[in-house]
Design brief:
- With 501 residues, this protein is mostly helical.
- Helix content is 43%, strand content 10%.
- The protein has 20 helices and 13 strands.
- The strands form six sheets. It has a three-stranded antiparallel β-sheet. Strands 1-2 form a two-stranded parallel sheet. Strands 5-6 form a two-stranded antiparallel sheet.
- Strand 8, helix 7 and strand 9 form a beta-alpha-beta unit.
- Helix 1 crosses helix 10, helix 12 packs across helix 13 and helix 16 runs antiparallel to helix 20.
- The radius of gyration is 33 Å and the shape is elongated.
- Bound molecules: glutamic acid.
- Glutamic acid (GLU) binds next to helix 6.
- The site of glutamic acid has 8 residues, from helix 6.
- It catalyses: tRNA(Glu) + L-glutamate + ATP = L-glutamyl-tRNA(Glu) + AMP + diphosphate.
- Belongs to the class-I aminoacyl-tRNA synthetase family. Glutamate--tRNA ligase type 1 subfamily.
- GO terms for molecular function: glutamate-tRNA ligase activity.
Length: 501
């Protein structure tokens, strides 16, 4: 095998891509880029019963959106194509035959009923049935009938599967980059099905053949595939191929309690477990994109699920991740998913965005509400509110008072409206009316000078002033609001509050 790093993401298109799958894709991407290698996407669709239309396009779109698109895949640099296993179908039979011929695999003709009976028999004796060396010679396999008989039955169209003949009495000492040394006792493995008489390989055979033909140097995948590692290594050995190196990524765990993160956790706690919305007849499963997450934020929080660079740094651009990524720094233990922390990441990326860009994203929301706001004004508003926001979708709620006068006044806040307030507010109007340089700092200086000169306490003015403009005790710096809404609107809102409170 060449020293060139070639890694793959090999999802089965059985539905929307779970965020755990996205993390696997990301770690492969980072590892490839870090090592000047190639990241490719292979679609493992040999199981036609589980095939879901649209899933493949969804996977590709998700990787594009995140900025971690593969270097090679369907329709892109097809150097080792096809990249869809269903289109490679004709290629696998030969490899299954090779294993038969080398004595590493055998035909099994057992019907479902016969297998059920065999299972029951074992269970009656208090044992669990495993299709392996303990049983394979008692079952209906080519190991116990002649070659001629086997050929005759296959020619007659009998259904069969080809199973791997797992070697006995061996301890496999394997190495995983993340887990270190791992041992497997071959006697405990079952003889997995590799190929079926309908001409389709199973995942195991197709995966190994393709990783070999596509010159995969490292297999980086989720921990749920660790139990398949001994079979895969034995298959490489049976073919006399050099095995790639393996790295099994830790599970992503629920935010609370134990166990793997599931879609149900997301539904219950109100966060997506998919990168993009996934629509079916039963409804929509929400995605990070449509929830208003920035792809950079999603990439950042996923990178930290099971990996860190050894420092306290949490914010990483994709480029920094590529530079710092190291499989040796991936943890063995499960990584807890923290939806609140994910929002924090989005906030961090939001405040880093240019105000004008955020204004552009906010604009359609305003248009929908019936406001056509001038670009420079909107940019200014965004600059005043973004420090407190996690998402652009929160902007309206945080800034509606810039566009409309309050329709009502927050009850608690109105308690600050005292008997003497109307008269003070009238005086404030006269002060505001006289201001010519209507900029935040200047308005503030003039209003505060007036208060000092007349010995009026801050609280007596500032809170009622804010209530008049905003309707509640919230929002950015008061004089910034005054500047943006302008003199006329400020006065009109104070007058309205005087008459209504
Ligand atoms: N098709 C498998 C999956 O859906 C690939 C596992 C592997 O990476 O070997 O995850």
């Amino acid at each position: 095998m060449s020293q060139q790093v070639r890694v793959r993401f090999a999802p089965s298109p059985t539905g929307p891509l779970h965020i755990g799958g996205v993390r696997t894709a990301l770690f492969n991407y980072l590892f490839a880029k870090k090592n000047n290698g190639t990241f490719f996407l292979r679609i493992e669709d040999t199981d036609q019963n589980r095939f879901v239309p649209g899933a493949e396009a969804y996977i590709m779109e998700a990787l594009e959106w995140l900025g971690i698109a593969p270097d090679e895949t369907i329709g892109k640099n097809e150097k080792f194509g096809p990249y869809r296993q269903s289109e490679r179908k004709d290629l696998y039979q030969k490899y299954a035959d090779d294993l038969i011929n080398s004595g590493n695999a055998y035909y099994a003709f057992d019907t479902p009923d016969a297998l059920d009976a065999a299972r029951k028999l074992e269970e009656e004796q208090g044992k669990t049935f495993i299709y392996n060396h303990t049983n394979r010679e008692k079952l209906d396999t080519s190991l116990v009938i002649s070659t001629e008989e086997t050929a005759k039955r296959i020619a007659a169209g009998e259904h069969y599967v080809i199973r791997f003949k797992t070697p006995v009495n061996e301890t496999l000492h394997l190495h995983d980059i993340i887990r270190g040394d791992v041992k497997f006792d071959t006697n405990l493995l079952d003889d997995k099905v590799l190929f079926k008489s309908d001409g389709m390989p199973t995942y195991h055979l197709a995966n190994i053949v393709d990783d070999h033909l596509m010159e995969t140097s490292h297999v980086i995948r989720g921990e749920e595939w660790l139990p398949s590692m001994p079979l895969h290594v034995l298959l490489y050995r049976a073919f006399d191929w050099e095995a790639p190196k393996f790295a099994h990524l830790p599970l992503i765990m629920k935010p609370v309690g134990n166990g793997k993160l599931s879609k149900r956790d997301g539904d219950k706690m109100g966060f997506p477990v998919f990168p993009l919305d996934w629509k079916t007849d039963e409804g929509t499963s929400s995605g990070y994109r449509e929830k208003g997450f920035f792809p950079e934020a999603v990439v950042n929080f996923l990178a930290l699920l099971g990996w860190n660079d050894g420092t306290e740094q949490e914010l990483f651009s994709l480029e920094e991740l590529v530079n710092n990524f190291d499989l040796n720094r991936v943890n063995k233990s499960g990584a807890k998913f923290d939806p609140e922390k994910n929002k924090w990441f989005n906030h961090q990326y939001l405040i880093k965005q240019e105000d004008a860009k955020l204004a552009k994203a906010f604009s359609p929301i305003l248009v929908e509400k019936g406001f056509n706001v001038e670009e420079s004004k909107l940019t200014k508003i965004v600059s005043l509110i973004k420090e407190r926001a996690h998402f652009v979708s929160e902007f309206w709620e945080m800034s509606d008072f810039f566009f409309v006068a309050p329709a009502s006044y927050d009850e608690k806040a109105s308690k600050n409206w005292k008997a003497e307030t109307p008269a003070l507010m009238q005086e404030l109007i006269s002060v505001v009316e006289e201001i010519t340089d209507f900029t935040s700092a200047n308005i503030e200086t003039i209003v505060k000078d007036w208060m000092t000169k007349n010995e009026i306490g801050m609280g007596k003015i500032m809170q009622p002033f804010r209530i008049s403009l905003v309707g509640a005790l919230k929002g950015p710096h008061l004089f910034d609001i005054v500047e943006v809404i302008g003199k006329e609107e400020t006065i009109s809102r104070i007058n309205k509050a005087i008459s209504r409170l």
